[in-house]
Amino acid sequence: MNQASASGTYRIGGDLPVVRLGYGTMQLTGEGVWGPPKDHDEAIRVLRRSVELGVTFFDTADSYGPTIAEELLAEALHPYADDVVIATKAGLTRTGPGVWIPVGRPEYLRQQAELSLRRLKLEAIDLFQLHRIDPKVPLEDQVGELAKLQQEGKIRHIGLSEVSVEQTKAAREIAPIATVQNLFNLAKRDAEPLLDYCTAEDIGFIPWFPLATGELSKPDGVLAQAARDHGASPSQLALAWLLHRSPVMLPIPGTSSVAHLEDNVAAAAIELTADELAALEALA
Ligand SMILES: NC(=O)c1ccc[n+]([C@@H]2O[C@H](COP(=O)([O-])OP(=O)(O)OC[C@H]3O[C@@H](n4cnc5c(N)ncnc54)[C@H](OP(=O)(O)O)[C@@H]3O)[C@@H](O)[C@H]2O)c1
Prior knowledge:
Elements: E1 9-12, E2 16-19, E3 23-24, H1 40-52, E4 57-59, H2 68-77, E5 85-90, E6 92-93, E7 101-102, H3 106-120, E8 125-130, H4 139-151, E9 155-161, H5 165-172, E10 179-183, H6 192-201, E11 204-208, H7 224-230, H8 234-245, H9 258-265, H10 274-283
Helix pairs in contact: 1-2, 1-9, 3-4
The protein binds NADP nicotinamide-adenine-dinucleotide phosphate (NAP).
């Protein structure tokens, strides 16, 4: 068994299998998620090593770089292995490092889907996520445009990002929603009601910042002692906790280094008892 596959498989939208422990590409861009990576060759190695380790689920967005993360994915992995699934997003514009402004006008979302198809060298995007709901545009127009793209065969499944249970329910009145992606990790569990809803409804839940942007990975952080006791790294415990939390959980840890990638992927095989899970929750 290759390493990532120990995390098990989840079928996005009921028909698109992914290995649950995935990879997020945001760390492959420059400072402030702006511009190219410091080390282009290491970025390519990270992506190719992910596939070697059995990762099949890659999260990206038009806005990472912008365009850089999608371009790196195509450069490293195209032509894609049959089981590689790329989830991209649109709906956040970038006007500078660290600046993210929602734009949900239908014609803009459609343009970004077309440009992602071109950059990723794909005929259809497996999972297309509305990066943020734009409060200035009716939800029907935003999700409705994604539904049109889906009917045209340009995207296979629709996802949402940073939403409430109520928003997810409202979007499901407009189109089938296969996944949601919200901030969630051992130390930040505000999205728990949404996770429980997704678990009950069999909607994929993609936790962003699964390592709390590295805070949970620190060798001297809150998970340090538990990691030593378990013969694991702090990152591995944070990811294993997520994987145990729900069968619909699809963590996408980000890293710019092959060494950290290998550390993270090994989390797939870590077993935790109910007592150990509770102890981790009490720590963070
Ligand atoms: N939907 C949204 O609005 C949204 C928002 C943010 C992020 N995301 C997605 O979520 C993904 C994950 O978030 P993220 O990458 O920002 O944060 P993360 O996965 O929580 O943490 C990444 C940070 O942890 C460090 N790290 C990773 N593995 C490590 C290890 N084994 N040991 C020590 N340090 C380690 C990385 O540094 P190194 O590079 O040095 O390893 C990096 O600084 C993103 O890539 C993106 O795809 C989505």
